[in-house]
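Question (not urgent): is this output format expected?
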Amino acid sequence: MTRFFTRTADACAEIFSPSRKRDSAGKEMRIASPLGLGKPNTLLNLIYEEARMHSEISLKLYTALSLLPPYPRDRLAENFIGPFRNAHWGENYPDLKYARDGNAAKLPANVSVHEFYFQAGGAMESHQLQQAYQSINYTHVVASLVEAKVEVLVQLIAKRADHRGTRYSLSSNPDLTLDLVDAYRKADLPLYVVGVVHRDLPFLGGEAEVPENFFSAIVEDPETNHELFALPRTPISPEDHLIGFHASGLIADGGTLQIGIGSLSDAVVHALLVRHRDERLYSSVRQTIQAERKLSLGLDLQSGSFREGLYGLSEMINDGFMHLRKAGILKREVIDEVTGNRTYLHGAFYLGSKAFYRWLRELSKEDESGLRMSRISKINDLYDPNEILLRRQRKKARFLNTCMQVSLLGGAASETLEDGRVVSGVGGQYNFVSMSHELEGARSILMLRSTRVSRGKRYSNIVWGHRHLTIPRHLRDIVVTEYGAANLRNRSDEETITELLNITDSQFQDGLLKQAQKLGKVRSDYEIPDWAKKNTPGQVKKWTSSGDLRVHFPAFPFGSDFTPVEERLALALGDLAALKESKPKGKFFFWTVCELWKSIGPHSGTFGPEITRMNLGKGSGLKNFVLRRLLIRRLAERLENQESKEDHASP
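Got this back:
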């Protein structure tokens, strides 16, 4: 029988109650909570505090993607983020205390946190989280939890009271919960499931809707009224727009789409909207980029509007699918085999912006009926009683993901550095790449920037090899950088190498080619084509400075959560951080002096609101003076570029 609590503290006490636990000691707690948005922060904080205060309790927490608002160490960044953090997440937002302590490697000895996916970069400096990380496919997590003998599951849920009575939804996270509960019932194992109602969490149906008795306990505490964790809408760089544009031409009308989150996925969605709405503009941009380049062998570029539309199949539903639905692109429907509903989008969890959550809450009856949340075993796999139906639904599938590096033999590293430290996690990437090779007509598309800059030095993200590959080379398919797309499926090793060199930054092409030739993987007389030798930052700037790209592919194509002043600051601070990273330490002082001199220009006195917002007003010391002038320089440069852009757009 389901128990009801109106105080989160009472639910926490029940979780630790000896009467609930079968073992007499009751001192070891194995608790699971969903990844991302589905965590009940307040309850988890109470659970963590209980263990932290009582060292005799051994707490093992199994979860993923423990989201925290940013707390930059850099003073300039914190001056920008601090006020925004309070405005965006709210001053009463309950940060996950275990995540904060875990990232700082300050978990007590009696607490361990086992995550299979990190908030990107958050755990890099934590030996505790790195040691407890579990490298595992999304579809294998449930089996791991069963083996770990997890005894409690705590989750944020949605509630709806209407003519049908009181109803509950797993909302953002049916992904693992449905499979985990089924696995425990099948094995006749006890699992204490706690649902914590949040009034703002969108109520979604499909398999996410569950009966009251699905839960062992339901908590409806009026103090659970904090903001949902919403991702800020961030700017898209010119390089990312190029990658998104290249990828958009690989998506076929009438097909199936999976995309992730981040600026590269946003860039793909924006390019798809341009393609759908303005064929002339889309063709003009393609001509600008492809004029002197050759298409990778076997690739068939698409164009034109989406008459039949796309069907969405994605472990993660995000803002991108909202924009595609609103634009009339996400309209190909399949029949959901569980409900019989005509469905345009299947997902396992969702995460996005405030605007995205508002859209979910305000879905029309038709849109709500066609958006079905489901379990990860169905979304990320084909091993299902309805496999034949799933295969028919997932026609012309394009599964788009990002990675950090690609080896010249076609393998991809998406989550772990060469030294073994984990940046994020495997998640479902391997699932979708593997599925793309199982489905007729499907393709996997991995996107990455061709280079990165660190401590004053440029590095290629296309490398000879990598110690920790997420995707093995035998699953190689399509790879996209800002310089184009390389078709690697069914290619020989030599063809794979030469195709990848064609989308590699030219600074690194010769060295990589010589390495491949030395090892006998490429014939000794092979030469990189002349058109591919133009893969330079200058070429990228030439493309992105052209009229159509410059005007119609802005930094914030979907709006932002910043004020206009903050938008300008976000872009300028990004420029400043990139420039600082590009300068060797020994030359940083000289560069700073030069920048201070350049900051005295025609626009130097026009950024009062920006300087005030950054708390860098005059009379605040030498450091403030230097930071103020450096920022003014970047703001002025952005303003000059904007004025040039507007002049170019004028008839």
